């Protein structure tokens, strides 16, 4: 299992990708809020509730990983889809995959991108799906990271 970073980390420290030049990099961290419960936070004011499996109202870290993948695919596909379907199209990306508990990894994650393309003929539908697939493969950082793997480091800041 990959190590995890224990202290707040900025996007710039996580990736060599170019950070937006118009704003400071977003700082991300998770704070313990109870027994096996954390709140993930960003310097932009976003929050997500995280907890163990079965804790009501909380996402598990694995669920957040899956949601990040689905959302990244959706955001990556949004421009080519809206260009062809208009700004008000509906889309749902479902993602599933069971963990291998022995090795503590997800050996496979499966995404299903649900779209209504009934207004398109077969040829236009196929062209759009190829374009969307290429867009996701090109710009979905989460999917690209999962497919290629990544180095994760862990350090500690402790009061002694």
CATH class type of the largest domain: Alpha Beta
How much helicity do the residues have? Answer: 25-40%
Provide the domain count.
2
Largest sheet composition: 4 strands, antiparallel
CATH architecture of the largest domain: 2-Layer Sandwich
Q: How large, in whole angstroms, is the Cα Rg? A: 18 Å
Estimate the global geometry from the Cα principal axes: elongated
Total number of strands: 6
Strand content: 15-25%
Order of strands in the sheet with most strands: 1-2-3-4
- In N-to-C order, the SSE pattern is EHEEEHEEHH
Distance between the termini: 28 Å
Q: Could you give me the name of the CATH homologous superfamily of the largest domain?
A: K homology (KH) domain
Overall average pLDDT: 88
- Note poorly predicted spans: 1-20
At the fold tier of CATH, the topology name of the largest domain is GMP Synthetase, Chain A, domain 3
| SSE-based structural type | alpha+beta
Tally of contiguous helical segments: 4
Pfam family, one: OsmC
Biased composition (Low complexity): 1-23
Region (Disordered): 1-27
Protein name: OsmC family protein
Structure write-up:
The chain is an alpha+beta fold.
Topology:
Blueprint lengths: L8 E2 H4 L12 E8 L2 E6 L4 E5 L9 H25 L5 E6 L13 E6 L6 H18 L1 H8 L12
Antiparallel strand pairs: 1-2, 2-3, 3-4, 5-6
Helix pairs in contact: 2-3
Short note summarizing the structure:
The chain is an alpha+beta fold. The protein has two domains: about 5-60, no CATH class; about 60-150, K homology (KH) domain (GMP Synthetase, Chain A, domain 3, 2-Layer Sandwich), CATH 3.30.300.20.
